[in-house]
Design brief:
single chain, 234 residues, alpha/beta, binds cytidine-5'-monophosphate
Length: 234
């Protein structure tokens, strides 16, 4: 795993499609994200299959439950050998600490654990009127990130536009993993708050998560390499 890298969102409905996509990469072993769609359709076997190919895996299941349940669920996920996984910071500090305990393997190693602060689909109006959170969005995100840091987590998932704020409040070593990435010539799709890979680097992102600009490109490998170059500034 690199210190800074592009994570491809492996958003496919079946394992067959996901593995056929990875076949395109030949000897290259991209870091990939497996989310709910693929995990719930294929189960742990898809994680094992992707790991067997030598790829690092971010298992994006966003756990949010009582601390004991999250701890035990995390022990199961950690046993799959994933490299990064996540919880909702809204589950609270005790839940995040329990997740860390569950993730730690008998040999002392563990996957990176990051927290979702507020989903990028949550609007200011929804925060105030449905979730009844009176603080502004940015303060809520920064405060949830601080809770995650205090609980011992490695970082947060956030928009690249929030990465600078997260780094300012939590320090440079606290990871910012950022979706919402679009190369300058790419379709916006349903993403609202987007930046280019280079802008994400400048904002302080450690890992960018990119799906459709790679998975739906005419030449996915070329798209991946171009995004990686832009992000790493090489
Ligand atoms: O195709 P696209 O590049 O928009 O994919 C982004 C990936 O990151 C998707 O898997 C999406 O679910 C995920 N994600 C996101 N925004 C968040 C959290 C996760 O786009 N706040």
């Amino acid at each position: 795993m690199l210190a800074k890298d592009v994570i491809i969102a492996l958003d496919f409905p079946t394992g067959g499609e996901a593995l056929a996509f990875l076949d395109l990469f030949g000897d290259e072993r991209p870091f990939v994200k497996i989310g709910m769609e693929l995990f719930y359709s294929e189960g742990p076997s898809i994680v094992r299959a992707v790991k067997e190919r030598g790829c690092s895996v971010f298992l994006d299941l966003k756990l949010h439950d009582i601390p004991n349940t999250v701890k035990r669920a995390m022990a199961s996920l950690s046993g799959l050998g994933v490299d990064m996984t996540n919880v909702h910071a809204a589950g609270g500090s005790q839940m995040m600490k329990a997740a860390m305990e569950g993730l730690t393997r008998p040999d002392g190693t563990r996957p990176l654990l990051i927290a979702v602060t507020q989903l990028t689909s949550t609007s200011d109006g929804m925060l105030r009127d449905e979730l009844l959170i009176a603080s502004p969005m940015e303060e809520t995100i920064a405060s949830y990130a601080e809770n995650a840091m205090d609980a011992g987590l490695d970082g947060v998932v956030c928009s690249p536009l929030e990465a600078t704020l997260v780094k300012r409040r939590c320090g440079a070593a606290f990871l910012a993993v950022t979706p919402g990435i679009r190369p300058a010539d790419s379709a916006r799709d349903d993403q609202q708050r987007i930046t280019t890979p280079a802008m994400a680097r400048e904002a302080g992102s450690d890992f960018i998560v990119t799906g459709r600009p790679i998975t739906r490109a005419a030449d996915p490998v070329q798209a991946y390499q171009s995004i990686k170059k832009d992000f790493l500034g090489i």
